Amino acid sequence: MNSKLIREKWLKFFETKQHFIVPSKSLIPQNDPSLLWINSGVATLKDYFSGKKVPPARRLTNSQKVIRTNDIENVGVTARHHTFFEMLGNFSIGDYFKKEAIEFATEFLLDVLKLEKDKLYFTYYKEDLETKNYWIKHGFDESHMIPGDKYTNFWEVGSGPCGPNTEIFYDRGPKYDKRGIELLKNDIENDRYIEIWNIVFSTFNSDGEGNYTELKQKNIDTGAGFERIVSILQDAPTNFDTDLFLPIINQIEKYTKYRYQTENYFIKDKEQTQINTNFKIIADHMRTVVNAVADGARPSNVGRGYIIRRLIRRSLYVCMLLDIKEPILHKLVEIVKETLPYEYETDEIVNVIIDEEEAFSKTVENGRQLLNEHIKDGQEVFDGRLAFKLFETYGFPIELTAEILAQKNIKIDYQAYTEAKEKHAQASKGNKISGMDKVINSLAIIKQKVDQFVGYEYLTYRSKILYLLDTENEINSNKGISYLILDKTPFYATSGGQKHDRGYILQNDQKLIILDVFKDKFGNHIHKVEGIVIKDQEVECFVDPKIRLGLERNHSGTHLLFCALRKVLGNQIKQLGSDNNEERLTFDFPADSRPTDAQIKEIEQLVRKYITLDAYRHYLIMTTDEAKKMGAIMTLEEAEYMDPKAVRIVKFDDITSDLCGGTHLSHTAKLENFKITNVEKKAAGIFRIRAISSKELVDQYLDEEIDKLLIEVEKLILRNQKINPEYNFEYLLPEDKEMSIEILKSSLELIRKDFIKFTKEKESSFEFNYQNIEFLDIKDHKVYYKNDLPKENIKTIASTLREKYPNVIIILTSTNPNPMLVVASKNLNSNLIAQQIYHKFNGKGGGNAILSMGKIEQNNIFDFIINELKWEN
What we know:
GO terms for molecular function: alanine-tRNA ligase activity; ATP binding; tRNA binding; zinc ion binding. Its cofactor is Zn(2+). The structure is a single chain. The protein is 37% helix and 24% strand. Strands 1, 2, 3, 4, 5, 6, 7, 8 and 9 form a nine-stranded mixed sheet that branches. It is built from 24 helices and 32 strands. The protein has seven domains: 3-235, BirA Bifunctional Protein, domain 2 (2-Layer Sandwich); 245-362, no CATH class; 374-429, no CATH class; 435-447 and 462-542, Elongation Factor Tu (Ef-tu), domain 3, CATH 2.40.30; 548-678, Threonyl-trna Synthetase, Chain A, domain 2 (Threonyl-tRNA Synthetase, Chain A, domain 2), CATH 3.30.980.10; 699-765; 776-867, Diaminopimelate Epimerase, Chain A, domain 1 (Roll).
């Protein structure tokens, strides 16, 4: 099935479900300064969901072109990363909800695209059993349901509408990965189980502080990956091996001696893999450039223009790797247009690209000269910050810098390059000036650091207000929200992954509540407070000791966790980010795959060992070189503002030494306990550990886990007793809470196995005579109808009869109460027949053309079959 037909089928299908087709909008957002590009299918519909605009209908569908460039380094390397792609979507604005959304998805995938039911898998939010049950009611096996937690299956971005989601995956089989369902259950990056559709149920309103209220109007927001669906239906190993990309790749081949090889996905020849990657990069980037320029973007050094220029120049560099001697990007415009459904004039696009090709040729020559000026004799490492400056200021690709330096046996300091790149990204974020930015801007009169942090030694301190302002101006007094700088402060400002202190400031018996503490560019602490305040008066500062203790526990725990990670997983583990508040910590690190459960347990036990060793904390001040010699880990953001001649090292005896500016426990025993609560994939090759500390919080967490498991165990025991009334399962829980959790988890597995055993026994105890079957002749169709069959056997019987008698329509019902209906046929659409029966007998269910299953109110439907059922479909 070609890509054009697939796109048309999507839009036509939802149009038949009363959805209004919204044409794909421009990639450049209109009246939305928060976005650089349209980056999702729902982005152009936000005003409809917010109520700012009246939608053309409450049901909408689209195929929206989008741009995302946050993973540009993965383009061409993985099977599915793109900078430009199409997002298929169906949306409900206060109209239908879970039931219909799942029905539509089932019908489209099974009846329209003809995907095999047994190859579809689903994730769902573990507390959203309604969604799980809807999938099961449509005939999907429960073993294909994977529960997720709030971090994997709950859609929430700050405050506002949010809710659980369900994702649909397609199993492409063991030739893509011999490992099975554990890939999905453990969220392991793979090419076998492909996510093709995400359905978000907008159910609640979040205040951003963990409080949720149910929305009066519930909405549906979905996104299906067009390129992924195309690759599945065209049996292509990657998205690039489809009719969306191959015509572009074939055009590129005309200008090079190299050839693209689809079969190399399985052969994995290293040299050919790199050649394929080069073709993929050019094809992907040119799709983005052509469509962005068509929508009005132009290359420049800022904003979206910078993105376009970067993609063009990266493509030109890759052309060099393919030994393409002449500029060819402008020659790809027509073929890109032919692979997509959008209409635009190509002359202007061609001219824009030609101008960039000519400019890049000059850039390469200038860049080589600049690079040579900074290379010294005997140099072994090239400053990564300078490499980024060559890229950022002059557009000289980092890949080309690396290639030139490699010829001289010089390596790039990639850590410094990454830090410079990230610092630039942070500085460039957003176009709007926030209240905080205005405060910092209004403090421009301060040219140096004027305050002193005394929070390492003191939690209470007498200080003086040096500066007082609102969000616009410096003021002398205020009532409400104010910002102030003290001469000396015990309040730690958010930095280095540690959240700010809380507490209050006392002035003339008036309490100023601390709402936030952050730093200006000089490192001055800016306190956001609420209350009545007067400048140039002394105040008393009171840090909340309980919150500070929680912060110190989790920050200290982060250091111990980092050390344990390196011990268990290897010294190659780097800290990519951390976030510590008084209740929990997170730690991000790179890895090829998620650590095993055994490794996670070992890491956790190692941290607990460090706690029992009761190592004492030491603060050391030394030069950067001295810190490196002693093995201190230099990864945190404090390095940006610490004097390299006097960096601060936190050391817990002989366990760990790290550069850090945060606050920490005096000795590790005060951490009390440590528990890893989750390990999740944050992005490709990046994982996040979530953990808690302190005896109180760990005990509370374990108690909650035990309670949830106990409920599940008792529920499954009752389910087994419905099949076998004499069934009983006994278990004894020890005082050790973690051991109790392990026993309950093991018990759940045993009880589930008992259920499967009882079900099979009940099925095998019923014997169905597949011989001497009597058929009904109804309107030129042979029909077999039978009621009062056991529920456990009805699906098996229907499937067996369908295969044994392929020209017969099978209609079976089970025993009362709540009888099941199964329709199976190889000639007529089983689901369409079943839907008539559901409608007549107040039932519900679904399936595909060869088998549909659901529930109805009564099991004797003989008269309806004979007299009313419509057989032509």
